[in-house]
Amino acid sequence: MKKSDVLDLIKYHYENKEIEFRNQTVDIARDFDKSGDSQLAQYIMGLISQTNRFIPQAESENSNLIPVKLNLGSLPLPTMIMNDLKGIINAINHHIGINKFLFIGSPGTGKTESAKHVARLLNRELLLVDFSHLIDSKLGQTAKNIIMVFNEINQLPFLNNYVILFDEIDTIALDRINQNDIREMGRVTSTFLKSLDNLNPEAIIIATTNLYDNLDKALVRRFDATIDFDRYSDDDKIEVAEVILNDFLKQFKNATKDSRLFKKILKTAKKIPNPGDLRNLIRTSLAFSDPSEPSDYLKRFLRAMHHGKTLSIDKLSQLGFTVREIEILTGISKSSVSRELNGAKDE
Asked: Which CATH superfamily is domain 65-228 in?
């Protein structure tokens, strides 16, 4: 460490130049780390971090890396996908250079949440690459921005404290052959490929996409493993939905839990939505429910499963609901339900 580093540090402090002060501190810590005094380097970084995990330059307006809050709740996933995530954890902990992972699948299948889960299990911070700053209308500027963000990643001090998330990577890495502006998109994708090749081996990258078939195949080959999230059976979705419901019911003390009827409603849908959509539908049904009616959320959820339609008593019966269940879902007494159904039979 040079005397000028200390003088600059004091200067930035008294001039209230927060970004410069932090960057100078990072440089000093890096020098100590390179000289073998990693303990002092960690201590310095801890002093300027509220979490003892300093994210350098993340607070700067010019940074392309955004800290992501990690959820502490459960992550309901099919066993096959959960086993793949466990495999990722094992591969990283083996330290054999497997560090790039591609999550593919339809919207709402849990790709981004799974990236958070991996970071949490690794006890690392998650940094999201902000694509809004990367894409530029000027010819060649997007490629330069990609180089800049990878330089920022490679120069992160204590890089093994982070997981880097490229959410919706198709934004910048679609197939070069199928683009209207082949030359520009080819330059962007080629730059991205070279940047991946020159990635610091300590970096852990997770990329997600809803458009796997449109990705450049050379890019796909750069990843060490591809995890397919489109592997939910209907039984998986029902199981996941029940976990989501139970989590939300903790916030709605007046709502009645009826797992059997809830599952029965799900099974009446022509196509059970993906978990992300299910989460929104369940949350909305509960949020809009009448607190004085403990089962009102089930009525709303039934309508949501049938695109807002209110089903008739006869239709509910055809779908296999009992008289008691129809009473719950319509608010019509069992005796009235029975009379209407019997009247329909007589006709």
From this structure: P-loop containing nucleotide triphosphate hydrolases (3.40.50.300)
